[in-house]
Design goal:
By secondary structure, the chain is of the alpha+beta class. It has 23 helices and 23 strands. The strands form 4 sheets. The chain has a 9-stranded mixed beta sheet. The protein has a 6-stranded mixed beta sheet with strand order 16-15-18-17-20-19. It has a 5-stranded mixed beta sheet with strand order 10-11-14-12-13, sandwiched between helices. Strand 10 and strand 11 form a beta hairpin.
Length: 637
Amino acid sequence: METTTGKETLGFQAEVRQLLDLMIHSLYSNKEIFLRELISNASDACDKLRFEALTAKDLFENDPELKLHISFDRQARTITVADNGIGMSRDEVITNIGTIAKSGTREFFQALSGDQAKDAHLIGQFGVGFYSSFIAADRVTLVTRRAGLGAEHGVRWESTGSGEYTIEPVNKAGRGTEVTLHLREGEDELLSGMRLRAIIRKYSDHIVLPIVMKKEEWDKDKSEYKLTDEDETVNQASALWARPKSEITQEQYDEFYKHVAHDFETPLAHAHAKVEGNKEYTQLLYLPAHAPFDLWDREHRRGIKLYVRRVFIMDDAEQLMPNYLRFVRGVIDSNDLPLNVSREILQESKDIEAIRAGSVRRVLGMIEDLAANDKDKFATFWKEFGRAFKEGVGEDHANRERIAKLLRFASTHTDTEAQDVALADYVGRMKIGQGKIYYVSADTFAAAKNSPHLEVFRKKGIEVLLLAERVDEWVASHLHEFDGKPLQSVAKGELDLGKLEDAAEKKEQEKESGEFKELTDKIKQALGDGVKDVRVTLRLTDSPACLVADQHDLGANLERLLKAAGQKVPVSKPIMEINTRHPLLQRLKYEADQQRFNDWSHVLFDQALLSEGGQLEDPAGFVKRLNQLMLVLDQKN
């Protein structure tokens, strides 16, 4: 343990200074929020001590009754939030308060928009609610000692919220942390027992630990309340999830969510249930209204707190919720798990498998309810979490059918980027005789919407799903059918419209394939190893050519994604399909100059590649050929 013999002045990390600046300039619209944040931190500190003490009883130091204490001093104009939780060492104070030492820091600050209302929720979910103290205080003093260390290892930290803070050793008899706020001018209304009690009951009534304050009695002579030496518990101090649903108001559910999720917005929905039978557990699960900034961070925090018989065990219990539902927040309290359960035990526990399966069903039920009964909230859910939720198609085989019903995509039905088309909607609009669900995938929505592969589908009025997110390739590779209808990429294999195919058009294609066989063979020879085959198509109406993958090869977009991710990709060549009715192909058929023929063939290939969002292997060669061909055309004119 590193100690210091005197006071030191240290500088905040640049990100902390930025955060403090946001706080001091009234980031929160509701200043009283600071008390909820400090109480929440104190509660977490007590939970951590209780968990560590399961294997090290001496950490309680003859003080096993965990609680929080709130006090105020009108003369000194201070409010103090104290706990007898785990406390911090000097190094932990510097790490936890002087710096933001966690992954996603850069993403967090990039997510800040400058809009106070939008930014407010990010502060809490990033886990730095301590800094909200500076909303109401112009100086904050923290005194702490980690459980298990001697009294001489106490630490005193102080800052005015500018670029620096001081830190020094002090003697602290009891473990835990005391945070004292020296209030700014104009904040004296907080120096009231009645006011503080009202804030605690509003925001922190659900805290499991007792929050105590000194009792007050009315002094008739002075016509004011006078503090006594007697403590009283201000909150209910009982686990909210353990109480009957009939006794819990919507406001209490929402405030509990804000506590467990460190969020400042109300959730979209919640599910509260007590499961009885072979496995007994209680679940209180929430769907947030917005995505956390670190949703795509591999080291992101998960949102499920695990309790065993109302004793906190761990935050971030990733075994309780699959990755595609990583945005879910809440509490699961089991009666069957051992109190000393570890992450390793959780990974192998049959009980956990049962709890996880039940919780997933509950979450899917919440989402289904939104989809059926609250379109606006479901639209918000999909906008915030749709990309993550799509991962479930490949991850959760047991619930794939339920997940598929909840998926939403853009399509040619509206031709907008909004993902509001359910697969059931698509099937309901399928033409008589249509046997497949068609889709096209690309790197961007614009590339998908304007893909040449859609030309014949647009001509015949056949709807096609427009897949433009990376995860969509994952979905298509795992979701082979829906409602008995197979999913078919319009850019793979030969065009197969089934009963929608026009017999006359098919006959004409066969005729043209024979008439233009010499041309297709010649183009294939010009392109050499660049293509698997060249053939006549009915797929195109306006474009001269397109590239398609063979039925059992990787699609071009998936191949690009895998390469970008550093994956080894099996070598496969595209098939080039030509529109023989296009003027360029009509002209190419009679091109006598072999070099120009070769150049035209390569230009057509490269154009087809670009039109589907691909990248040219030799951009300079493409430009050179195109310039030469334009010069020849200019000379002829």
